[in-house]
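Bench notes, bay 3.
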Amino acid sequence: GSGASRTVTVTPAANQSGTATITVTVTDGGGLTKSDTFLLTVNTAPTITTQPVSGVVFAGENVTFTVAAEGTAPITYQWRKDGQPIANATNPTLALTSVQIADAGSYDVVVTNSVGNATSNAATLTVNAVITSTITWNFSTAAPSSPLPGGLTGGTVTQGNNNGTTTMLDSSATSTYSGASGGNNAGLAARTGSLNTATNGSAYFQFTFSPATGTRLLATALAFGARSTSTGPQAFALYTSADNYATPAATGTITSTSAWVMRTPSFTPVIGTLDAPVTFRLYGYNGSGTPSVGTANWRIDDLALTVAIQTPPAITTQPASQTVAAGSNVTFSVTATGTETLTYQWRHNGNVLSGATSNSLTLSAVQSSQAGNYDVVVTNPDATVTSSAAVLTVNAAGGFDAWRNEHFDANELANTAISGPNADPDGDGIANLVEYALGLEPKVAESGNGTEASATETEWRYTFSRPADRTDVTYLVEASTDLVTWSANGVSLTRTAVEAGRETWRASYPRASAANVFFRLRVEVQ
């Protein structure tokens, strides 16, 4: 009828967004039918599906943080450092180049759309200073003139793609720039034309360094004096085997006026592979004119390469497995070596433990749910290593007190005449402590206590059964011939069976030692 209204409620599923067409049909009692079609739009706030990951690097390296989010488009991004927005950092990826100590901190990103916003987890960036050494050549010989850092070998410079028979070492020209070492230098005959890294292409000076086992080489800076004639190179580029000569670590121009000039180009750190040598090739190119084959038209002197020797983390003391009772405190620890700074992340059954980022892990009042495998991931800028798993076994809270709490109410627990260790509330002649030790019911009178005496031709025997989990109880069987003097001397105790959580034990005493014998079982809670 007139004035009638209908309400349609649509509840989208979680994370469901977009548009859909729905049709609503209404029929009144008189058979009149009315249909309308609506366009339904569902918008959802952003949710972060991939969090940025913390990192540890050396100063001068590049770092990338990445986030992924879902929700109604368009989505915008704003990266922050220590809670402050970073200018122009508005993409899902934040790329930081040649980071320095000041760049260390906490990075997160705020993801926003028309419905709401979400903030990612904070990723911690740790930037370590590089402890470097500078290797120099004065070319009185082809080998470095300065001592090499410990664990590093090599460094002899050779010619590559020399255009003729030019001798590398020469004293025909004197370096005239500030700090020049003298007249010795290295030279070669360079071809003209653009950079050509192929065999018989652009000429280059080459040297190789090999790190000691368990380390890798990091190069952070380059400097050299250069002299180029009118037919010599007008540009240079340093390539290395660290990336299979794919990208130059340093580039620059050379003035082909025969004047000596010191070059200190911008340098992209060269990071070698663990245990692997790194070869450096300093190419000269873009020369012009007609170079004379065999005549040096490019010379270098006072070559200097700044390097560091890096050691990946190694675990020297593994965390140890432990077995404890519920409610106990537990500490796992690890000892590791490697280039500082080392970072630590403890895990439980492979899952990261929040805040567990030191070389030791302390768990307070552990419960059975915390049992399992614990390991730690140790990281530095060189590598990551994971410790062996330490197994934590947590025995259920037990013992006589827990047994009392299970079998007696609060009023009974307050009355030691009922719940005390020597009490016998069911009047069956068996004290509570013995009831606990033998796995009996303290408030139900048993017709027997589960013990039995017998004899064979050679020995007297006393047999009793006990729960297998009563590890806090000491069981002692003593013998007597007069019910006055009791002793465990001569009594041997043997476990004869384990079944359904119970153990059967048999005490034996030689028949030859006594015409008759009495046994008694003594139990003590540890």
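Next record in the batch:
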Amino acid sequence: MAALVEFDTIPELFYGLVGYFRGSDRPALRFKNRDSGEWEGISWTELEELVHDMAGFLHRHGIRKGDRVAILSENRPEWAITDLATQVLGAVNVSLYTSLPPDQVQYILKDSGSEVFIVSTTLQQRKAEEVFDDCPDLRQIVCMSDVETESDHIVDWDRALRTGRVYWKEHREELEEMAEDVGADDLCALIYTSGTTGRPKGVMLTHRNFSSNAKSALDLVPFGPDDHHLSFLPLCHSFERTAGYTAVLACGARITYAESIDAVSKNLVEVGPTVMISVPRLFERIYNLIAKSVEEGSAVKRKIFDWAVSTGGKVAERRANGKGPGLLLGAQQAIAHRLVFSKLHEKLGGNLRFAVSGGAALPKKIGEFFEAAGVTIIEGYGLTETAPVLTVNPVDRPRYGTVGHVMPGITIGIQRLDDGRIIGQINGDHYPSSLTTDEGEIVVKGPNIMKGYWNDPELTGKAIDADGWYHTGDVGRFDDGYLIITDRIKHMIVSAGGKNVYPGPIEDEFKTVPWIDQIVVVGEGREFLAALVVPDYDALHTYSLERGLDVVDERTMLEEDVIQQVFEKEFKSYSRTAASHEKIRAFRLIEEPFSIENGLLTPTLKPRRSRIEAQYADLIEEMYEQFGKR
């Protein structure tokens, strides 16, 4: 559905929606009151007042057009209020992940030159205080929670709003003119990419970048005023910022903020959203829990489950061909839903029309399972530098294993890796297309492409070539008009025999294995591939108890021959049908999961491959030496 109002900047969107909903008590945002435990709403009129209060505070403390305001907060109404207040002043939002340690917080604040820092909890306040003296541009800290220590440069949220309310009233005319002065090509946000190596880069995204991308998404994805989104992916990530914030607001849908990531399962049932925007990790976990339950059930239960999935698959196939299920298949679908899939729908809130997946590849098997269960997952693809969405699967014709069609207004080309020649391209305005190409680097043009990297013209020049193509660093190809992603160029493994291997698709093969929680494939310069595996301990504990193993701790459990054989069986099963250079010939089980805290995952939950290989270098070397002695 199209946006409710015309806009090319975030202030135009905000004031357009305020006017559209003027006089209505319809909530724009919802949240759970921590004191009463009740869900409460903020109307558009109330949101306008709060945004003006915060804008008054920011302007009083020197924020002008182009200045940077940093936010370190979980998803909550205060994040949106701060962002919108920043935008109406023509200033720039610099959002940080709450998981970042103080030294990385300090780096981003200093690099961006942020002048005001809005933080959520006392934990985040301590980080802000720790780095304050080392950030010369930083003048003021605002804490959304109670301030632990009062000082000249720290103020709590309520006090900031009260101060700003008085200031806005006194300077209303001047401040309203600032919103009107914001242009489409003005900087809107600096989003620091988490990066799998080195320091994060500040991606400069304009109002045009976000506005065009949100409007294009609404041309393809059926959001509307009757929809309701539960927001839990970090708003400092471009995916949630565009898809779960800008686009949802633009079509008049409601946003409800989850209490926390840990409370998402509970909140889904409580609020019953119609749309869920997530990353593949959530869908993988749901699938593996279901698969584990079925595997542990009786033969009859497994047979009913397989029949239900088969029935749902037939319905999905007919729907993709523009046909209804028919009388008999429709009746079978109803039975399958009642016996098998109804519990899944209940756990997702009971009202879900569709889900959106982005941020990483969704394994084909998982997408097809959810489609069979009556939950369509719309998978897309994009990068922070593209604001971020480049492609989206058609709702009525999703092809799992692909990332769909090119978005309107965007052109994607496939550039051959050896000679740099563009071997095929599709503009999203020119569908239908049946273009099929060989593999190459995915390059992009469009109004959503970043302005560049903050303070780094050299890196910007490398990313955007002289012909205006942004180089994604991803390898892919078109198949009948659908884009298929292979992997990142920099992840490519070159074996000792000179074979090029992309580990991503191989790792995806194991994401539906109930024993495996995380996996990283290694093998650069080696004779064969091997894997580092973090097991799913819940599944292994159950398996161990069923077999009477005396499990003292997780390390002991992983050393048991019976447990090792479980994984050997999985890798042998995979390798039977894999190409010789893609077989996994050795593995090691890792006791500690890869996490953000230990630095082995990015804040967007991608493995930091170089760090993982460095940390486990001795183990990898030992693995190859032992296999070579066989």
